[in-house]
Recover the amino acids of this structure.
């Protein structure tokens, strides 16, 4: 079984082994005894990454489902509208696509409470339940109302899953691979989108295939719920609940026995620093308390991510490619490959060049890509040149988004949020994400009609440049630091 008990000579220590009068470094020294021959090596070597990998992979099933349900209705929408009797009703079609956003907003509001109250593993299982039920309801629907109910249920699971996945991955990952593992979330989302595309291909030739598209999504959802029975619980959550021995046991599964004492000493140091803070985290504290600045940074990052125009580009990409003579299914494949390739490159670079640099170059690249889109609207360019700029700008935008602006916020924010407020602060920031996502999707076509593509894409490019300035001034680098080191450094700032 994953993470079976280590065969090291590690011997469990109780909470009294972490004396309150010393700092982390001194605690680590006090916890060592003469027989601990590996203690010195622990300070200079990294824990084995393979121990935590299976747990991270199971957690990213929630991100795969997130991507899958975002794309599952794209190809089958025409067949769904025909079978359920709302062909030509653009409002109904729009609701089938976007009702998930409403459910996701509701789910994100409860994700922090679920993760803190039930634990990370139970929160994953909770998010899988509406996805399984919603997939079944959508697949058997015989009316628009039933379809919308199924999509709303799926959306609540989509809203619950991403915050918990971000929390869990950064809390169970060793510091030196945390960026790489955090990139798995974006990669899994890309794979989910591409899986929905490929599974939807037979929908035009097989009657009722759209029902199968929904039912198949219940398989990874069930795998997530069952897999979490075998995964480790977050040691930080267990420690906050006073379950010290269990936290030590989970650290042993995730890091190996020789690294447990240092990790537990760091947790104890953080608890001492926060001893005078209340246990309950309120909205007022998030907005006006001592940690309001990091909450503001997180909310603004997610807002700028959406205001960059990424969803508008995804929505409009098929039209851009169609004007160049490329079929819509091929356009989706090109966009999906660009997204996946950028995510893979980000995975390689995340723990080498750092989060901040990736964010900066990502938003700069997105601004340049939008400038290409603006240039493609010029009447002075030949038609073929304009098409090349438009297609190239679209692919460049998706690629550069996947390099940083896509994966980094979901990784960076749980890193910079203190453990006491981490779940609820991330839930708040993601609720901001969903609200802006909804309004961008709602208003994009209207703004495109009234303002025209040149002005609208210029606005998106401006938001990308604003993001560059914001990141440069406000975002800190977290590469290679433990969560406890990040939190202690932030607590030390005025």
């Amino acid at each position: 079984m994953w993470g079976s008990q280590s065969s090291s000579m590690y011997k469990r220590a109780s909470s009294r082994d972490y004396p309150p009068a010393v700092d982390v470094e001194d605690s680590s020294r006090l916890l060592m005894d003469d027989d601990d021959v590996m203690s010195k090596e622990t300070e200079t070597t990294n824990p084995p990454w393979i121990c935590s990998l299976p747990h991270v992979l199971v957690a990213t099933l929630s991100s795969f489902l997130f991507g899958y349900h975002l794309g599952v209705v794209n190809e089958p929408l025409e067949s769904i509208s025909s079978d359920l009797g709302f062909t030509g009703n653009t409002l109904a079609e729009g609701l089938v696509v976007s009702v998930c956003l409403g459910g996701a907003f509701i789910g994100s509001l409860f994700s922090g409470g679920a993760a803190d109250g039930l634990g990370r593993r139970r929160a994953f299982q909770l998010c899988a339940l509406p996805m399984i039920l919603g997939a079944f309801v959508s697949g058997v629907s015989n009316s628009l109302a039933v379809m919308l109910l199924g999509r709303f249920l799926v959306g609540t699971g989509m809203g619950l899953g991403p915050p918990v996945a971000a929390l869990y991955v950064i809390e169970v990952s060793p510091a030196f691979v945390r960026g790489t593992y955090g990139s798995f979330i974006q990669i899994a989302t890309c794979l989910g989108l591409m899986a929905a595309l490929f599974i939807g291909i037979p929908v035009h030739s097989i009657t009722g295939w759209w029902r199968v598209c929904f039912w198949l999504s219940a398989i990874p959802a069930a795998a997530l719920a069952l897999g979490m029975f075998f995964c480790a619980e977050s040691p930080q959550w267990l420690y906050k609940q006073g379950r010290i021995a269990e936290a030590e046991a989970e650290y042993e599964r995730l890091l190996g026995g020789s690294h447990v004492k240092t990790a537990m000493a760091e947790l104890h140091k953080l608890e001492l620093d926060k001893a005078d803070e209340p246990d309950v985290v309120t909205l007022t504290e998030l907005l006006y308390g001592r940690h309001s600045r990091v909450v503001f940074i997180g909310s603004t990052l997610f807002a700028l991510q959406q205001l960059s125009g990424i969803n508008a580009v995804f929505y409009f990409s098929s039209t851009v490619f169609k004007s160049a003579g490329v079929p819509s299914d091929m356009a989706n494949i090109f966009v999906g490959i660009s997204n996946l390739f950028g995510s893979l490159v980000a995975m390689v670079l995340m723990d080498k060049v750092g989060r901040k640099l990736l964010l900066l170059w990502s938003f700069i690249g997105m601004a340049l890509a939008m400038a290409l889109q603006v240039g493609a609207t010029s009447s002075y360019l030949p038609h073929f040149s304009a098409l090349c700029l438009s297609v190239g700008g679209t692919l460049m935008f998706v690629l550069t988004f996947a390099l940083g602006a896509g994966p980094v916020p979901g990784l960076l924010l749980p890193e910079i949020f203190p453990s006491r407020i981490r779940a609820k602060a991330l839930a708040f920031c993601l609720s901001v994400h969903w609200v802006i996502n909804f309004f961008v999707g709602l208003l994009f076509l209207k703004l495109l009609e009234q303002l025209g593509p040149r002005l609208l894409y210029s606005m998106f490019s401006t938001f990308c440049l604003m993001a560059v300035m914001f990141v440069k001034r406000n975002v800190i680098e977290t590469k290679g630091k433990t969560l406890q080191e990040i939190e202690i450094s932030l607590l030390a700032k005025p």
The longest helix spans residues 422-474. The CA atoms of residues 24 and 266 lie 5 Å apart. Confidence is low (pLDDT under 50) at residues 1-43.
